[in-house]
Model the fold of this input.
Amino acid sequence: MLQLKLEKRLSYNKKLDYMVPALSMLFALIAGSFVFWINGANPFEAYKEMFIGAFGDGYSISETLVQTTPLLFTGLAVSLTLRTLLWNIGAEGQFFMGAMGATWAAQTFSNQPPWILIPLLMLSAAVAGALWGLPPAILKTKLHVNEILTTLLLNYVAIFYVNYLLYGPWKDPRYPGFPQTPRYPDAALLHQYFNTRLSMGILIGIILAVILYVLYKKTGWGYKIQVIGQSRKTAKYAGIRVNRNIIRVLMISGAIAGLGGMLQISGLHHKLRLGGISNNYGYTGIIIAFLANGNPLAVIFVALFMGALLVGGDSLQMTMGFGKGVVHIFEGMVLFFVLAGEALKTYKITVVKND
Amino acid sequence: MNSYVKLKQISKRFPGVLALDNVDFDVLPGEIHALLGENGAGKTVLTNILSGRYQLDEGEIYIKGEKVESDNWSARDALEQGIGMIYQDFMLVEEHTVLENIALADLSIPFFPDYDKIQSTIIELGKKYQLEVDPNAKIWQLSVGEKQRVEIIKALMHGTKVLIMDEPTAVLTPQESDDLFKIVKKLAEEGTSIIFISHKLPEVFAICDRITVLRKGKQIGSVNVSDTNEKELAKMMVGREVFLKTDKAEYKPGNPVIELKEISAISDRQTRALNKLSLTVNKGEIFGLAGVSGNGQKELAEVITGLRPITEGFIYISGKDISENSPRKAIREGIGHIPDDRIGMGVVPDLGMPKSMVLKNYREERFSLKGIFLKKEAIVSYTNKLIEKFNIKTTGIESPVKLLSGGNLQKVILARELSESPPALVAVHPTQGLDIGATEFVRNSLENQRINGAAILLISEDLEELMAVSDRIGVIYDGEIVDVMQTKDTNIEALGLLMTAGKHAAA
Done:
């Protein structure tokens, strides 16, 4: 009789770092086909439709990249904290606070030329995002409050605060019925290329990913946060100032998410409003960071996959009538398979013969 | 006489290791049978098979001459057949009372246990075997020796016929060990068989009747105590002659290096851990610190290495005031630290060898360009040099250090902490859990540092080690140093008394 048995791996197989997420995405697609099948649709047709929707022509590719941009930033933000074994569930709120900070700068310095105004917006957004990461960092280091809860709860505070601004002091007086600000001054807007909605935001995101990769792999700082992430006690023992670095990491993470918020407005929406600004980007960023195993270069590809899923899901809605929920089912299943696959990094399955 | 338990040709495989290879083992009624061997020899695996915690791969188990169904031999079967085991980490509920813990051990625990009856049994057994313990005390209030007694009572309540004790003296003071030996002998006289796991030869000779030696999963032999001697057994255990007596160079202490002046510190539990403690360690000496664990040793090591702040007093290193200490400061002043928690504090388990070696000095110019970009090649060649110098066995320098054996892991830490010849060194339980070969290596490394002029504070619970290695020995009790002696002027009994009775003994 053949029997399956879990055996502990004796050595670490580096290939699994890539295999597990890749197979997880594949398995999620396979499992997803049952969802289509149960609902009377041909899975192959549906996937084809999704693929065409996301990559079918130049414009759909550009739309996929438009969705990828914010995901890139939230994914990078969360992956940074993941490396230090912190959980930043607050990218969503930091994203909104970044958009808020950018809007404040756009209104306050509206007479400046673009080459001053755009960097000012970026700075303001990054600072706002970083400050939104600060309270959880302080609570974590001084009072040992779990950062998962504090970052998560601050999301609601951020969204409600932006809500308040949009219904109150920042409301565009010309459209009293809509909770939104006036359009940014032209100098605060990023150019959209090739007649699409794509701005240089995606490029900034990719450059940031490369910079983070170099920081992680080649610098003492990257080494330091790796030590902190894997053993706080050892880090302290080695003379690394753990608390200071935890605060730093959470603030930088917030700044990255905040920058994503700025690019979303300057590059895409051109005014701050609630609906459509974030498509759950902060939460999807958690899945992305996890799938990418904290590797910033991998974040680029996973964010692209998730962006394509969003755009493909949209086209599915139009052509086959499946709701947006399908996309979230996929996201959930990918995460499910990744978590299940984690076990394979420490265990291997062997076949035992029993007589 | 027929054996009570017989294990025949037992084999047990773990991934990549043959933990037991055709081992035979048997225990006679009323016999004290020692299971002797180095770490990883298979002692614990063998007894865990007997107690039903592990399943065997091959072999047969006989109880009172009858073959049991060894494939399904479970922990419950073992208990029902009167086989009890006392693990090194006690299986007790800390927040419960002695009585409740013992009641819980009853296999057929009724919904309403008869506490009065259990209590009277505890007291009765206590009188009979000198196992006195307060039935209504909470476990966390008890000393280690008392907890062990609770475990023994638990076993007796089961009607245990074969009691397995896994290194029972590892956590005891010499006096407590003597008490335990009396209890064990009495139990054997009454007909209980004892399987006594140990790697300490003197105690095996003190109480055991028969000895089975395991080495790397193989049974090397079973001998009667009367037919053998310590030297022969040590050779059986290790497979070669060992010399644990370190040859010590002449004792020529220099100037004070580590100076503590009336320091106090608070423990994690907010109690006073160090109480105006003063201590000096000189250049070129090993200062051994003896004490029952929990008397401030941990905090003392942390204070010197900057991991814990002091609330009063002064710390000087080579005359420099570092009372406002931090790990970074301590490293800068050249205080090496060999922590007792090797895997949790001494290394980052998932990192490879190069990153483990430069943990404390990666900021230096030779390992990083302007303190920012790491010089990978320099780090790797430095690592290779240390691997050679400290003879570290590895499957590849980038494989995670957690996969190393205990001895090799400790060598990684030694290599990092000692290769720069620190003027001061704090070593906490540096040989705990290591086999004889690795122990020998660690002790020699410390001795080499001493010859090079390091001031070494050695914290250990192993008195024989302290006697063998130290120049001077201090005893810590309740956060104070109760006495400091030249090693040649003291002995294990005197130290044991000071450790347990503190000032009363010193006065």
Observations:
- The interface with chain B takes residues 7-12, 218-221, 223, 226-227, 230-231, 233-234, 236-241 of chain A (CB under 8 Å).
- Chain A has a mean pLDDT of 88.
- The first strand of chain A starts at residue 2 and ends at 8.
- The two ends of chain A are 6 Å apart (CA to CA).
